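Structure representation.

___
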Amino acid sequence: MATEFKNLVEILEHSVEKFADEPLFGTKKDGQYRWSTYRQFGEMVDNFRGALHTMGVEPGSGDTIAVIANNRVEWAVGAYAVYSLGAKYCPMYEAQLAKDWNYILTDSGAKIVLVANQEIYDQVKPFIDEIDTLERVIYFDGPADHEDAFQTLLDHGAANPVDRYHPDPEELCGFIYTSGTTGNPKGVLLSHGNIASNINGIQSLLDIGPSDVSLSFLPWAHSFGQTVELHGLFSMGASMGIAENVTTIIENLSEVRPTLLFSVPRIFNRIYDGVHKKMEEAGGLSKFLFFKGLANAEQLRKETEGGGRPGGMTQFMNNFYDKLVFSKVRDRFGGRLRYAFSGGAALSPEVAQFIDNLNITVYEGYGLTETSPIATCNYPGNRRIGSVGKPLPGVEIEIRDVEGYPEGTGEICVRGPNIMQGYHNLPEKTAEVLDDDGTFHTGDLGRVDEDGFLWILGRVKEQYKLENGKYVVPGPIEEQLKLSPYINQVMIEGTNKPYNGALIVVDLENLEPWAKRNGVPADELLTHSKVQKLYEEEIARVGATLKGYERPKKFALIDEEWTPENDMLTPTLKLKRRIVMEKYGDLVESIFNGDSAAA
C-alpha cells in the first residue's frame, strides 16, 4: 500500500532512506551521463539546509528563497533544503526577462535567490539595492572559492548542521507564479498538504518504481513538471536524467533510455510530425508497412475497447508490426519507453492515438497550477484517449453552465485537498476564482461523460461568437491545425465575423524544401499562389474533423515564430493573444476584408 504523505519533508525522509543506493539524478558531463544516488542527494540537502540556516533562515520562519535556473540537481537540492527548514521556494525561468525576475522577487518578498550561472548572477546582484527583502544571490556554477558559490556554501553547511523542520500540511511550501497571458504573473500559494495530496493520488493510481527512469526536460518551475515528475518520481524511487536543453532531447532520449516521458502536447506533436516526415521520405516498403501497422493497431484498439479480447490474427499482426516497424521507431526514444504522460494543454486525439499505436501507453491528465496541479488523469484500467481522465482520489469535479453551451457542458470547477491557498497579496483575484466552500473555478470549458471521464473543450474567456451566433473556442482548433507539418503555430480569430480566420506561422523547416521542389522563389515564400493553395489544402486535410463553422475559411501567413523572448508566448508556451493582436491586428483584420496578405 502506498505511503500517505502529509508534507514534502516526509517524502524526503522516506525516499532517501528507502531508496538510498538507487540512482536519482543523471547529468551529462564529458559526453556521458553520470548518476548520483538518493543517499548523496539527501546529504546535499542536509548540507545546504545548514548553509541557509547560517544565512539567517530560521526553522519555520516562512522566509522565501527564490531560484532562477533550468532543471538541475542543485535546483532540487535547494527545494528540499528550503522545505525542510519550513521556508518557501519560489521558482522562475532562465528564459524570463529581468523585469519579470525583479517583479517576482519583489512580490514574493524573497530573502535569498539561487541562480544558474555568472550571467544571471551579474543581472540579479544589483537587485539587492532595489528590493528591500533581498539579502543574497547565490549561483550554482560559481567557482569553488567564491563566497556566493553553491559548492562553497555546501561545504560551509556541512560544518553547521541543523535539524529538519517538519511542517504542518497547512503550511506553505512555496509559490508558483502563473505566467498569465495578460498582466503581471500571479503568485499561487501552495501548501505542503496541497502537493502531498497530489503525490498520494499519483502513488495510488500509477505503477511506477525504482526500475523507471524519465528524461527530465519539462521545467520544474512549472507545476506539472515539479509535482508529477520531480516530487512524484522522487517519492517512488525512480530516476531522472536531466536533458541538456530542448534542442538535444532526441539525442538525450537515446542516452538516458527512459521508460517514462512527461511532456506537453508541443513535444508529442513534434514526435508525430517527425515520424510521419521520416516515413514519407523513406517511401516504398517501409512506408507501406508503417501505415499498415498503424491501421492494424487501430483495429486492435477497437477490438479491446471496453475490456474486449483482441482477435487472434489482429494480435498476431500487431506483434509482427511491433517487432518489424514500431520497435525501430521506439529505438529513437531509447527503446524502453512504456508510458507517456501529457499535460499542460489538450493533446490532439489523433496524436494520442498515434503514440499509443506505437505501443507507448499514453496517459493524459488535467489541472492547473492552482490545483497543485492534477485534478484528473487517465490511469491503468481507466483510460479513454481524447479525455483527460477521472478525478484524483479526494477530488470532485463539477460542471457549471456557460452561455451558448448545452446542459452538461460548461465551466470546470474543482474541489479537494489539492486546491491552492490563494493568490499572494491578491485577495480580490482570489475571490474571483475561489468560493467560500473551497470550490475553484478553472475558467476551462468541459463535460463529464456517462463513465466519469472529463473532456476539455477550451477556455471560457477565449470563447467568442461568430456573426451567425455560433460559439467558438479557438484552442482545440489551433491544436488540430498544428498537425500539419507546414504549420508551426496558429491563432484562430472570428469575433463577430461571418467565419473564422487563421493567422499562421509557417514551418520554415518543411516549407522551404517544398517551395524549392515546386519552383517557388524564396522572396515569394509567403505570397505565391502555389503556397496559398498548399495551405488551403492543409487546412482542409488536418481540419477535416472540425465542424464546418470552426474551420477557418481564410488565412494570412507570417514567418516570425512566437516565443517567450518576443513576448508572444508565456514561459509555459501559452499564446498571448492580446500581444499577437497588438502586432498583427491589421493583418488579421485584412483576412476578413478580402485582401489578406502575408507579412
